[in-house]
Structure formats: structure tokens, C-alpha cells
Amino acid sequence: MPVTVLLVDDEPLVRAGLRAVLDAQPDIEVVGEAADGAAVIPLVRSLRPDVVAMDVRMPLLDGIEATRAVLRSVDEPPKILVVTTFENDEYVYEALRAGADGFLLKRARPAEIVHAVRLVAEGESLLFPASVRQLAAEHGENGGNPAARAALERAQLTEREAEVLRLMTRGLSNAEIAARLVVGTETVKSHVSAILAKLGARDRTQAVIAAYESGFVAPG
Amino acid sequence: MPVTVLLVDDEPLVRAGLRAVLDAQPDIEVVGEAADGAAVIPLVRSLRPDVVAMDVRMPLLDGIEATRAVLRSVDEPPKILVVTTFENDEYVYEALRAGADGFLLKRARPAEIVHAVRLVAEGESLLFPASVRQLAAEHGENGGNPAARAALERAQLTEREAEVLRLMTRGLSNAEIAARLVVGTETVKSHVSAILAKLGARDRTQAVIAAYESGFVAPG
DNA sequence: GATCGTCTCCCCCGCGCGGGGGAGGTCCGC
DNA sequence: GCGGACCTCCCCCGCGCGGGGGAGACGATC
């Protein structure tokens, strides 16, 4: 059975584009559309889609509130893929915190869009903006310092947070990081929470994965 | 102040080699040697080294028991770097479980040996055999299937464990992995524990790091 | 001076994680 | 037949982790 998708976006053109891209796939089926967040819940209830592709910036009810509402009021909520125009959209991180499962740029190539839908449908998370990974690939072949710094800027990590994330990618615990940075464990926890929120990660493991996938750290 | 190291190996030649390599570094100082595990504890007590480079296979008291003994009987135990000849040494994993901090192949290049000592001295863990990473680099440029499979064999992961590790590198929780594999969460926990032991990882984050560093999974 | 972001530290709280055991099942090879 | 690996599931238990709040200090910016 195909992956069923509900499109939620105030721009008809965007909906049409997503529908064209997704319906071209044999294993994906767009089962409905909505123009604002307020219409999402009844549609989710009646259509029971696997994935909701949700715009963040919408009239009446934005993507963040709509995400919360869906997760709160539906028993087996669909996966929620947040769609946005800007890679540096602060709303996106709020949406991810609200429980969204993934992140998608409107200007992503069709193959990437399809990939994103399949991934979240399978239950996996799209932690980092796809643009960050792309950016890391563009800057030099092996994601060195400039790429890492650029990725950092995209994720809007502060210097301290970046340092903490680096130590996290070395496998250190909060207490070990605290000892290394000569601060309290509570401080480290604050930084870690901020990192998780900004990266849309659920736990430190997902944050480390995001760091590798984005080129923030390179293996080997 | 330099990193102080105690060498423990039954072969004088190996001790001499390690001493030559390490003493050539301005920031590393070999402060003592022992020929078997039984002599380690008093030496650790009197010399208080930062790092103990410990052979696994030794007469009287092997590296595993010696590691346990040191960690058990010394207040501020040194970091323990397990030294071995074979990358596929089952004793090594036991030693890591016993509390050793790192892993070193005797045939590693001098730079790698120095690096390993510095790393464990800093409190970081050398999770995976360095040989696995090297092996991943040799097999094709991007660590594809053959490299991953080879790395798997080195770590002696079973098929099921490899599958679980793969899902761990996707950021899934134990419950999510259980749902995906249609087994109980207790089963997943068993597999995860086995993976952590074989990889010498303390938690799932370190296991995921090891997976990336070894080429078991490739970013991007 | 007021505001903002950053870094620092504190509280309470629930839960997932990992360690320590054990145990039954299948399949394979000796 | 009998070990031995492997997969599966179970128990108890402690603790680290992460969420949700709040708050003070500092420097930069307006």
C-alpha cells in the first residue's frame, strides 16, 4: 500500500507542485489538500494520511500550532513534514520542537522531496535542513572548516553550543563535558537542550547523527 | 606537565618499541615498565601514571584481569589502553568491558600510537579498532558495502546486531527499533547491550560515533 | 539607561537507557 | 545426541538524560 499524503499550504501553486511531484511516484499518493492549519484536523481524522506536508507560515493557524493540534487531538497521528521557504526559518525549529518529524525546503529538487516523504513515512527523522548537507558538500570536498562553520551559521549555534556539540560527537557525557569546560553539569544540560532544539533532535544521539550528516564533523 | 605512561607487556622488544615511540614526544613520558599483570598494581600506586599501555595476553595475570584489578584497587585509576597483536582479538572486547579506555594495535604506525595515548589521556575513548577505520578507507573511496561488511566482521557483530546498529544510526529509540523489527523492546535492549560491549561503547551515542568512524555508515 | 543575547546555574520531574542477572527457543556442526 | 551460537523475552535497579520552568551576570547594541 502506498504512502498517503495530505498537503497543507496556503499557496495553491505550491500544493500543485507537491502533488505533481509526489503523485508521479507509484508508492506515494496525495489524498487531500488544505489551505490553512485550521482545516487540518478534520481532514487528518477523515483521511488518516501517513504524512502531512505542512507549511509553517499560514493564515488562521500556522504550522507550529497546527502540528501541536494534530499531535494532541489524533490518536495515531501522521508523520508531519514541515515545509518552508527559508532554510534559516526560526519557525521551523519551533515546529520541530512541537513534534514535527522532518524538514523540507520548497526549493528542494523533486527527488529530495520524494526522499523526504519516504523517510518520514518510514518513521525516520529528517533532523537537519537538507540545505545544510548540500552546503557542506559544495564547500570543498571534505567538509572542512569553512563548511562546518557555514553549517553552524545555518543552525544558528552559538560558539559555546558548537563546542559542546563537538564534545558530544566525541562521545562525552554531560558530566565529562562539564569537567572539560570547567562549568557545572546544569550549564551543559542547558547547552545540550538548546542544541537539540536548534537541530530538531530528540536526544544527543540524533544530534550527533545530525552533526555527521551535515558535515559539522567528518569521520576518519 | 607531560602525559605519564606505564608500559605493561611480557615482550621486552614491544616495551622498547613503545618507549622509543612515546619518549620521542615532548608531551609524553614513559615512567615505568612491567612484564606481567601481577606487577601492575604496585607500580600504578607508586608511579601514578596517566595512562597504562597494557598487553592483553600476558603470563600470570592477563590484561583483562589486570585492568579489573587496577580499576578496583586504585582510587584515581589511570586510563587503560589495551595493546594487542590481532585486531580480531576477543580478549580485547572483554578488556573494554572490564573498563579499559582504548584499543591499540601493535602494528599501528608510530603516529597512531602517539595519537591513541594522547586521546585516552584526554579522557576520550578509542572505541573501535583503528584497523577497522583503515580498512574502511582502503576498500573503495566511500566505504560502501564491502567495507561496511568487512568492518562488521571485525567487530564480530551478528546480522541482527548489525541491523539494530543501522537503525541506531538513524536515530531510532529502542521502542522504535522494536516496532520496526517486530520484536519486544527487551529484545532490542539485549542486542544494544551486545553491540555496546563489542564496540567498547558506553552508550548508544558512542556506538553511533563508532559506526560513523569505522565506515559502517557513511554520512551524506 | 534599556534591551537583548549569551553563558551560567538552579529547581522538580518522568522516563528511557543500560547493567546485572536468567531463561527458553531454534538451528547448526561436531 | 549434545554443545554452542543466536534470537527472543523476562526480572530488578540506578542513574543519566531531557523537558519545563526560572534567574542572575555580563557585554553589546540601540
Automatic annotation (TrEMBL), chains A, B:
<keyword id="KW-0238">DNA-binding</keyword>
<protein>
    <submittedName>
        <fullName>Response regulator transcription factor</fullName>
    </submittedName>
</protein>
<feature type="domain" description="HTH luxR-type">
    <location>
        <begin position="150"/>
        <end position="215"/>
    </location>
</feature>
<keyword id="KW-0804">Transcription</keyword>
<dbReference type="InterPro" id="IPR039420">
    <property type="entry name" value="WalR-like"/>
</dbReference>
<keyword id="KW-0805">Transcription regulation</keyword>
<keyword id="KW-0597">Phosphoprotein</keyword>
<dbReference type="InterPro" id="IPR016032">
    <property type="entry name" value="Sig_transdc_resp-reg_C-effctor"/>
</dbReference>
<feature type="domain" description="Response regulatory">
    <location>
        <begin position="4"/>
        <end position="121"/>
    </location>
</feature>
<feature type="modified residue" description="4-aspartylphosphate">
    <location>
        <position position="55"/>
    </location>
</feature>
<dbReference type="InterPro" id="IPR011006">
    <property type="entry name" value="CheY-like_superfamily"/>
</dbReference>
<dbReference type="Pfam" id="PF00072">
    <property type="entry name" value="Response_reg"/>
</dbReference>
<dbReference type="InterPro" id="IPR000792">
    <property type="entry name" value="Tscrpt_reg_LuxR_C"/>
</dbReference>
<dbReference type="Pfam" id="PF00196">
    <property type="entry name" value="GerE"/>
</dbReference>
<dbReference type="InterPro" id="IPR001789">
    <property type="entry name" value="Sig_transdc_resp-reg_receiver"/>
</dbReference>
<dbReference type="InterPro" id="IPR058245">
    <property type="entry name" value="NreC/VraR/RcsB-like_REC"/>
</dbReference>
